[in-house]
Specification:
Elements lengths: L1 E8 L2 E8 L1 H18 L12 H31 L4 E7 L17 E9 L13 E8 L4 H12 L2 E5 L7 E10 L2 E2 L5 E7 L6 H7 L7 E5 L8 H8 L13 E13 L5 H8 L4 H35 L6 H10 L5 H27 L6 H19 L4 H13 L1 H20 L4 E8 H15 L1
Parallel strand pairs: 5-12
Antiparallel strand pairs: 1-2, 2-4, 3-4, 6-11, 7-8, 7-9, 7-11, 10-11
Helix pairs in contact: 1-2, 8-9, 10-12
């Protein structure tokens, strides 16, 4: 076997591998013998098929697979032995012609040329104890504390029955179908609960504010909630999809009960009983801590991006853009315009991949099954924030699909590795806390999120 490497400039190398008959003939015969030992071919007992028959039936495909495997192993072993770092994956040289496979020619040599983008040595910068980063957090909004205390007060409050409507009540009514301006004899009737705060139609709100216990009013059913009519039909009235009910249908409503939430007073006694805290000031501190804890994931995301950007800017890593262009065109099948647009981002992603792996090695960071499951659980929680509670059987199916898909499993593993890397880096670098108005923080996070996309 003969292997030659030629420097093409711009950290681009061409590696030519030549297989001599001595490199493949004995292995070829061995592969045929293995196949013959387990082949079940009509007319022969299993394992007794003559090599000549096996060679005639399967020789070309066995030979082609073997040659391909020999080249791949030779390239891998050469790169490992010579300790050559490279980006992405080696690819066939542009001038490499398709091999003409001749299994019966025992004197033929085969040559394949590969191109690799070499990765010279580099020193990672930006992650030492002397490196300082701003840890940006949002300041609570002007009315945040007042609103949160009001929410807690209402959460601990109790419903009490009242006779009039002031704007935040639950209104229990009997809805009765009408026809030609009159209650329909034998028509549909249903007890319904109206949430005043869920009503968007101002004319209905104004109407309700004039009503009291025992009063009757008429209105289109489509105005009862700020929801799609299908929701009103199914969830409010409990009707099947096929039931003939339209948003513009007018029903009569008799008010049977009005309930109003009476907020609890946050006395020291209530605070001690409900929150195990000693005073209102302690409760305010707890509310403030909860606010910052809820903002921590976003603040961490901004810090991660700042660290990554700074490391990429400071770390001198020479990546062959010539090779990357070829890679994007050949492997990713991108056109020239798309390549020029995506090149800076793709190069940075490549650089960060190698930097991240080197950091993981230097700190002996390994990804465990529990780490991957934690990332999967976080994904599910993210879905539930947008779509509501997901049934457990659905969660199980989603996770099973992720684990059976190699690409998705790799993504989960990489995310878990990234999380552990940053957890470690955050204990090394200097974090200087900086608080900014929440509107500025949200704009900053949104801009960062759009860049990531």
């Amino acid at each position: 076997m003969n292997i030659q490497r030629n420097d093409q400039g711009d950290n681009l190398s061409k590696i030519s591998i030549t297989l001599e008959p001595a490199d493949y003939l004995k292995k070829y015969e061995s592969e045929l013998q293995k196949l013959a030992a387990k082949a079940a071919i009509k007319g022969f007992r299993k394992g007794k098929t003559p090599i000549s028959v096996i060679r005639k039936m399967y020789g070309p495909s066995v030979f082609a697979d073997m040659i391909d495997d020999l080249f791949n192993r030779a390239l891998h072993d050469y790169l490992e032995t010579e300790k050559i770092k490279y980006i992405a994956q080696p690819m066939l040289a542009a001038d490499q012609e398709r091999l003409a496979i001749e299994p019966n020619n025992q004197e033929k040599t085969y040559t394949i040329a590969y191109e690799i983008g070499q990765l010279p040595d580099y020193t990672i910068k930006g992650i030492s104890e002397s490196d300082k980063y701003e840890y940006i957090l949002p300041l609570p909004g002007e009315n945040y504390m007042e609103d949160e205390l009001k929410y807690l007060s209402r959460r601990l409050g109790k419903l009490e029955e009242v006779e009039n409507i002031t704007g935040e009540e639950l209104i229990y009514v009997t809805a009765t179908e009408m026809e030609n301006g009159q209650v329909k004899e034998g028509g549909f009737s249903k007890d319904v609960i109206l949430f005043f705060n869920s009503i968007e139609d101002q004319s209905l709100k104004d109407l309700l504010m004039t009503k009291k216990l025992g009063d009757v009013f008429e209105v289109e059913v489509g105005k009862l909630e700020n929801k799609d009519f299908s929701f009103i039909k199914k969830n409010l009235f409990g009707l099947p999809e096929e039931f003939d009910l339209k948003a513009e249908d007018v029903f009569q409503y008799s008010i049977n009960k009005i309930s109003r939430l009476n907020p609890a007073e946050l006395t020291e006694e209530v605070i001690k009983e409900q929150f195990q805290l000693d005073s209102l000031e302690d409760l305010k501190k707890e509310v403030e801590n909860s606010f910052y804890q809820s903002q921590k994931p976003n603040a961490d995301a901004l810090l991660k991006k700042a660290v990554m950007d700074n490391v990429l800017a400071q770390t001198e890593m020479q990546v062959s853009e010539t090779f990357v262009r070829k890679w994007l065109a050949t492997v990713e099948k991108l056109d020239a315009e798309k390549i020029e647009k995506e090149l800076p981002k793709f190069v940075d992603e490549l650089k960060w991949t190698y930097i991240k792996d080197d950091i993981a090695k230097s700190f002996e960071i390994d990804v465990t099954e529990d780490d991957i499951r934690q990332v999967a659980a976080n994904r599910i929680r993210g879905y539930e924030m947008n779509y509501g509670r997901i049934p457990q059987d659905t969660v199980n199916k989603i996770v099973k699909n992720w684990y059976s898909d190699r690409t998705e499993l790799f993504k989960l593993s990489e995310e878990a590795k990234s999380n552990k890397i940053f957890d470690k880096l955050f204990t090394i670098i200097q974090k200087e806390e900086k608080k900014i108005p929440i509107s500025e923080f949200e704009a900053l996070f949104l801009a960062n999120d759009q860049k990531e996309a």
